[in-house]
Amino acid sequence: MNFLKQFFEFTRPGNNNISGQCKLCGKLYADKLKSTGNFHKHLKRKHTKQYEESKFSDSIPPKTDTNDYSENLTSNVIKINQVMLEELIVKCNLPP
């Protein structure tokens, strides 16, 4: 319901009903108190772009900079290789 509050101004006329006026186009819709289907349908049909942008903006992780990731990965690989080399030198009694 919190998601819908950015698109509708809700009032509760009584009897387990709720009505809401769309902030984008002004149309009035009603539904049962615990149901939001009519409000979602309206947004999907009439305001698809705004609905999808708002609905899915939280679920899409922010794009990470791949250069930072590559640099960190390369740095970690170098560290791992160094540790492995040191272990081999110690275990095999090789000169450094």
From TrEMBL:
<dbReference type="InterPro" id="IPR003656">
    <property type="entry name" value="Znf_BED"/>
</dbReference>
<feature type="domain" description="BED-type">
    <location>
        <begin position="21"/>
        <end position="48"/>
    </location>
</feature>
<feature type="region of interest" description="Disordered">
    <location>
        <begin position="42"/>
        <end position="68"/>
    </location>
</feature>
<dbReference type="GO" id="GO:0003677">
    <property type="term" value="F:DNA binding"/>
</dbReference>
<dbReference type="GO" id="GO:0008270">
    <property type="term" value="F:zinc ion binding"/>
</dbReference>
<protein>
    <recommendedName>
        <fullName>BED-type domain-containing protein</fullName>
    </recommendedName>
</protein>
<keyword id="KW-0863">Zinc-finger</keyword>
<keyword id="KW-0862">Zinc</keyword>
<keyword id="KW-0479">Metal-binding</keyword>
<dbReference type="InterPro" id="IPR036236">
    <property type="entry name" value="Znf_C2H2_sf"/>
</dbReference>
<dbReference type="Pfam" id="PF02892">
    <property type="entry name" value="zf-BED"/>
</dbReference>
